[in-house]
Recover the amino acids of this structure.
């Protein structure tokens, strides 16, 4: 256990008040490009077609809890978690395929991580996975998978820790966590948010969601904006499913760069914001180039 629990941030109490005044709405469902995922995973096309669209956290919890049997069940739970996590982001299938196809014993690794999350709790599963890393699976999406696997169990939760939650905590709690598989950081994060949840009488996952949504809502291009916490809209360009594999690779590299920068111990919130804006501009250049080619092709076809 951590020696000293940080006090509940004032900003988090304010978020709770606004959320409760709005009737405690659940996180909205996530829409996703079904055909793009099926194209990347033809062997799982039928399963992907059976997933709801849009998809919710509850759907993913059910999918991951079903992943206790055959190999396909484990992979299906992981796919559902990644579908939800990437949402409309067009290169989500590419990044997920890299995890599943470029790691030996990936199914057994995912199955064991899920088992530990269910029986021993999130921090224990995180620690185990940090010693059995899967190439291409960073902290942000690994904790999404672990979250769904551990949900509803008696052990410590596996709270999601990504760039948005990290940035919110740094800006509102003066707490700079690492996204570089540092087990003490993740354990302290889970224990602290759990203690906060006990103090305010809420579930730890609800506090994680509020921090995530509040930070997402500060970006008008984010697909994760929540009306009850601010305003914003989705970046429609991120949904384009017609990208080439080379363009997927460029977008993937940009995302890796953003994650790596956020993981630097010296990365401050203001620097992370500047870096994130630069990455977003580069991503738009890639997408704009592709959209321009498509427009020219369609114009030629119509002549």
């Amino acid at each position: 256990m951590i020696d000293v629990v940080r006090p509940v941030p004032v900003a988090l109490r304010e978020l709770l008040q606004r959320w409760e005044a709005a009737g405690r709405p659940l996180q909205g469902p996530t829409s996703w490009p079904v055909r793009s995922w099926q194209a990347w995973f033809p062997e799982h096309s039928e399963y992907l077609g059976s997933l709801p669209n849009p998809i919710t956290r509850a759907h993913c919890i059910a999918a991951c809890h079903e992943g206790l049997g055959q190999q396909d069940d484990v992979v299906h739970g992981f796919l559902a978690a990644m579908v939800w996590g990437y949402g409309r982001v067009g290169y989500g299938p590419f990044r997920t395929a890299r995890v599943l196809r470029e790691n030996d014993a990936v199914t057994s690794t995912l199955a064991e991580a899920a088992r530990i999350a269910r029986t021993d709790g999130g921090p224990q599963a995180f620690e185990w996975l940090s010693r059995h890393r899967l190439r291409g699976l960073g902290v942000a999406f690994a904790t999404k998978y672990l979250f769904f696997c551990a949900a509803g169990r008696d052990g410590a939760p596996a709270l999601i820790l990504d760039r948005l939650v990290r940035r919110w905590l740094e800006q509102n709690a003066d707490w700079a966590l690492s996204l570089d598989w540092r087990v003490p950081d993740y354990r302290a994060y889970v224990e602290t948010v759990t203690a906060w949840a006990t103090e305010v009488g809420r579930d730890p996952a609800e506090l994680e969601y509020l921090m995530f949504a509040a930070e997402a809502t500060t970006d008008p291009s984010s697909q994760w904006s929540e009306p009850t916490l601010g305003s914003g809209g989705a970046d429609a360009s991120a949904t384009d499913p017609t990208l080439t594999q080379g363009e997927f690779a460029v977008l993937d590299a940009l995302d890796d760069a953003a994650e790596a920068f956020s993981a630097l111990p010296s990365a401050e919130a203001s620097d992370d914001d500047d870096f994130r804006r630069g990455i977003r501009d580069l991503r738009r250049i890639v997408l704009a180039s592709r959209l321009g080619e498509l427009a020219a092709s369609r114009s030629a076809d119509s002549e």
Remarks:
- Residues 231-241, 298-303 have pLDDT under 50 and may be disordered.
- DSSP finds 14 helices and no strands in the chain.
- Residues 81 and 145 are 6 Å apart (CA to CA).
- Residues 237-302 form one domain.
